Amino acid sequence: MAAVVAQESSEISCVLIPMNGGPLLLPNVCVAEILPWRRIKTHAGLPDWCLGILAWRGAEVPVVSFDCINNQDLHDDGAGRCMVVMNRTRLADGIPFYAFAATELPRMMQLADGDLSSVPGRLKRAEVAAVQLGTETAIIPNLEVVERSVTELAGDFQTP
After folding, report:
1. Rounded to whole angstroms, how far apart are CA atoms 1 and 89?
2. Which residue has the higher pLDDT, 81 or 139?
3. How would you class 79 by CB atoms within 10 Å of its CB: exposed for 0-12, middle for 13-18, buried for 19 or more?
4. pTM of the model
5. Which fold has domain 14-154?
6. Is the dihedral of CA 124, 20, 32, 10 positive or negative?
7. Which residues have CB under 8 Å from 82's CB, separation 6+?
8. Hey, where are the domains in the chain?
């Protein structure tokens, strides 16, 4: 009798978030919700990378331009975007959520071992890696850089 070998699935559920500077690749667990573009409040003194504050589920959530926080040009026309509300990976300080301003709807995908290959090159401030995913190049963002900036900003707009 032939032995049947069960293979563990090593796939991970991911989301590809379109940005002007190239898509971001993240595990699905990082995403709390994907929303159509909504009106956001702006405040004097917000850094360039913070497009404004989103009222979401009773919380005030900063809307982050990844392109800007990554020291790229800010392409802020507001047209055709959606918001990707992110779960913070470190909750020691600050608010539990922030949102990325995306240029289009994100795509969900399953990735397995061997689906990605590293792309050599110089990484920017908020990037951990550039990867090749089929015919597309994607960025794995450095969420620590983003979340540190969000934490520093949190005291400026939070309501008690």
Report:
1. 48
2. 139
3. exposed
4. 0.85
5. OB fold (Dihydrolipoamide Acetyltransferase, E2P) (2.40.50)
6. negative
7. 34, 35, 36, 37, 102, 104, 105, 106
8. 14-154
